[in-house]
Design goal:
Elements lengths: L1 H16 L16 E7 L1 H4 L21 E7 L5 E12 L3 E8 L5 E3 L4 E5 L17 E5 L1 H10 L10 E11 L3 E12 L13 E3 L2 E2 L5 E2 L5 E4 L6 E8 L6 H10 L13 E8 L2 E3 L13 E12 L2 E6 L3 E5 L13 H11 L1 H9 L6 E4 L2 E4 H17 L9
Parallel strand pairs: 12-19
Antiparallel strand pairs: 1-2, 2-6, 3-4, 3-5, 3-8, 4-7, 8-9, 10-13, 11-19, 13-16, 14-15, 14-17, 17-18, 17-19, 20-21
Helix pairs in contact: 5-6, 5-7
Length: 396
């Protein structure tokens, strides 16, 4: 029984942890007799994920203080027959937990007495400053049991709007139950908790051993992004003696270049990016070598409770093809003609066309494009001009 009660109290602590900010709210239409406040630590307030295994709730009262509460008797009389109730709701499910102090185990507050409680003190049957022992009944509702089952071993709460209400009430023979004070708040309303989603890679290459070749020595890396999250992009050269996992883990264990780190012998790129794409630069990286196989991976760090969780994508590979003897010229389509006219002007383009020109390559910000890649980039430039993302001046 003791373990069952302890687990219920731990669940109360967990649900209290869900609150990001709870102002003092006294629920009493007349003269308030008791005030109630709850506050969580800055670590949890800034969390992007709420973890179930790193909140210190299984430490038998010796874990970090992640939530604290304060209640005070506002009168000059003793408040007797006091009880506490906790209700928790998940927006997509309903009430998942209801716990209240057990009948026959009330507590009291002396005149103007204040009591400070943390998640650690709630792990026992005693409140500091209160003589009476406080025991609890209740726990997960039927919906709550289904909710826990649906987690299926997950270590984080799913994204949702979670609300919690803490009530201090009094029970007397004359009036029955009377709620004296309560606080209620939610997390995940305007900015929901992040979900522990996988990071999906898009280009270049494919999974390990897919044998994908690319021709551009300055490839564009693309992956599915979550808004506001910073990612770390690593590119390493393949090795006959080390696995891709080992190479990338070693690179990730050293600091990024922008944070004072240096490239390992086999490391070509190590950058932090906000967004879902990054083009291999002409400087600030070790150039890709024709004929070599490369592996790349995306990782990110998420604040989860008192810890930081690292999430990584799968590993993709590509091979930079050997250059051909002569690069094929860019095929001049109607779309290519249109973008060239926009860029150099009609008169210049007609002069070039009359001389029978060919377009071998062009350079943008130090990156040279040729062949099919050049045609793709020109089509993208035309689209951006037509959408107004690129504004040309000078009469072109």
């Amino acid at each position: 029984m003791k373990k069952v009660i302890a687990s219920k109290i731990a669940l109360i602590c967990l649900t209290l942890v869900i609150i990001t900010f709870v102002p003092n709210k006294v629920v009493n239409a007349q003269d308030p007799v008791l005030s109630l406040e709850i506050e969580v630590s800055d670590l949890l307030r800034n969390s992007q994920l709420i973890g179930l295994t790193n909140l210190g709730l299984d430490s038998e009262g010796r874990g970090p203080v992640v939530v604290s509460g304060f209640m005070q008797n506002l009168t000059n009389e003793v408040l007797n027959d006091l009880f506490i109730e906790v209700r928790v709701n998940a927006g997509k499910i309903g009430e998942i937990l209801n716990v209240k102090s057990r009948p026959g185990f009330p507590f009291s507050l002396d005149p103007m007495q204040s009591v400070y409680i943390t998640n650690n003190t709630l792990s026992s049957d005693e409140f500091p400053g209160i003589e009476e022992r406080v025991k609890f009944d209740g726990g997960l509702t039927n919906l709550g049991d289904e909710f826990i089952e649906s987690l299926d071993g997950s270590t984080t709460l799913p994204a949702d709007t979670y609300s919690i209400e803490v009530i201090i009430f009094q029970v007397t023979n004359e009036n029955g139950r009377v709620d004296l004070a309560s606080v209620q708040e939610e997390i995940g309303g305007s900015v929901p908790l992040a979900e522990a989603r996988d990071i999906f890679l898009r280009t270049p290459g494919d999974v390990i051993d897919a044998n994908v070749e690319i021709t551009n020595p300055f490839p564009q890396f693309n992956w599915d992004e979550e808004q506001g999250i910073k990612y770390r992009l690593l590119v390493v050269k393949g090795s006959a003696s080390d696995s891709p996992e080992t190479l990338l883990q070693s690179a990730r264990s050293s600091a990024p270049i922008a944070e004072g780190g240096s490239f390992l012998q086999y490391e070509n790129l190590d950058v932090k990016v906000t967004g879902g794409s990054f083009q291999f630069p002409s400087s600030g990286a070790q150039p890709l070598e024709p004929g070599q196989i490369y592996y790349w991976q995306i990782s990110t760090e998420i604040q989860s409770g008192v810890n930081v969780e690292e999430r990584t994508s799968e590993i993709w590979s590509f091979k930079l093809a050997e250059p051909s003897q002569a690069e094929a010229p860019v095929i001049i389509t109607e779309e290519t003609k249109e973008v060239l006219k926009r860029l150099v002007g009609n008169a210049t383009f007609e002069q070039l066309a009359s001389s029978g020109f060919t377009l071998q390559s062009f350079e943008i910000n130090g990156v040279t494009y040729s062949g099919n890649q050049a045609a793709i980039i020109l089509a993208e430039i035309l689209r951006k001009i037509e959408d107004g993302d690129i504004v040309l001046s000078g009469g072109n």
